[in-house]
Amino acid sequence: MTQHRTPTLLYIDDDDALARLVDRGLTRRGYKVVHAASGEEGLERIRNASTQGCIDVVALDQYMPGLDGLETLEQIMAIPDAPPVVFVTASQDSSIAVTALKAGAADYLVKDVKGDFIPLLHVAAEGALRQAELQRAREEAEAEIHASRDRYAALAAERELLLREVNHRVGNSLQIIASLLHLQASSAAQDEVKAALTNAMGRVAAVAQVHRRLYTSQDLKSVMLNQYLDSLLEDLRRSAEGNRMSRLTVKAEPPIEIDPDRAVAVGIIVNELVMNAVKYAYPDGAGPIHVELTSQGEDLLLSITDDGVGDNVKADPRSTGMGQRIVAAMASKLDATVERDPNHSGTRILLRFRRTPAVSGQANSAAAAS
């Protein structure tokens, strides 16, 4: 069975006879009463509570020699973790009550010389103790909330740091792979081998660029698509087929943000379509290839355009159709539409997709409407 500690009330009053009445009356009600005959003595007792015993609640008289009740109350309130105070006076002046309550008293009551107020003092002390307990519980809860927020902030900062480190290492590793593919493509004697290795290098570079963007970005949840495409096409210009990309341009509406997974899909599609234009659009040499990204409300429109031979391209019997399958797979990941502009003399591929993934309900509604 839990043993409850007897609460201690400090009664500060210069009237010894009344103090004895309070002692007897509250002792019968389960309190231990400590008497201080002046404000100075009471303050000393509260300050030395750690060595002389805890004070749970204070009953403080107003009229005393030396420090009066209001002056004593002001100093009690300045003590760290001060006990609650019930202000006691024989005066009927309500302005004293208002002043005491504003100064921090938990309650206020009018006393009499016969001790008839003692039951009211008991009720006021009980209320002050409950109020103090609730205040302590609230402060502890607030402290725990602040501590939890601090822990969460620390964990979030640590997680962000780890994600940056992961993106940094993954980006570096993929860049090494892309560099090795570039070296292998540069030394390849057969054109088909060179092209295959260059295509593979572009696909790896498309993924590596996303991780590099995430490592250097303040936001780990999105990628600036215009900056990403600039860097991706710069990688392609430095590839083994770079001499045929001297007129490769990119135009993107800044700023366009997109989540990393969708950025990877866009990058791989751009790589495949640009490399396809390099191989087939200009049989006699290099020509202009334009990559353009525009925003149309919640949709993004990506176009890859060349002014080459268009439908007159000669079929390559060595083609495996890998690029087309990759484009179709990435377009499916984006829930995008891919179409060819029939009015363009060369080749213009249009890819339309949403800036953010459609939720399942919206996707199902769109499918039903179509």
From TrEMBL:
Q: Which Pfam families match?
A: HATPase_c_2, HisKA_2, Response_reg
PANTHER family in UniProt: ETHYLENE RESPONSE SENSOR PROTEIN, TWO-COMPONENT SYSTEM SENSOR PROTEIN
Question: Which keywords does this chain's UniProt record carry?
Answer: ATP-binding, Coiled coil, Kinase, Nucleotide-binding, Phosphoprotein, Transferase
Q: Which residues carry this modification: 4-aspartylphosphate?
A: D61
Q: Which GO terms describe its biological process?
A: phosphorelay signal transduction system
Spell out the coiled coil positions from the record. 122-158
Q: Which organism is it from?
A: Bradyrhizobium manausense
**Mind telling me which residue stretches traverse the membrane in this protein?**
none
Which SMART domains does the record match to this protein?
HATPase_c (SM00387), REC (SM00448)
Tell me the InterPro entries matching this sequence. CheY-like_superfamily, HATPase_C_sf, HATPase_dom, His_kinase_dom, Sig_transdc_His_kin_sub2_dim/P, Sig_transdc_resp-reg_receiver
In its keyword annotation, does this UniProt entry include ATP-binding? yes
All residue ranges annotated as the Response regulatory domain in the record: 8-126
Tell me its EC number(s), please: 2.7.13.3
Catalytic activities: ATP + protein L-histidine = ADP + protein N-phospho-L-histidine
Q: What class of enzyme is it?
A: transferase
List the lineage, top down. Bacteria, Pseudomonadati, Pseudomonadota, Alphaproteobacteria, Hyphomicrobiales
Q: What is the name attached to this protein's record?
A: histidine kinase
Entry-linked PROSITE patterns: HIS_KIN (PS50109), RESPONSE_REGULATORY (PS50110)
GO terms (molecular function) for this protein are: ATP binding; protein histidine kinase activity
Query: Could you tell me which residue ranges the Histidine kinase domain spans?
Result: 165-357
CDD domains (UniProt xref):
REC (cd00156)
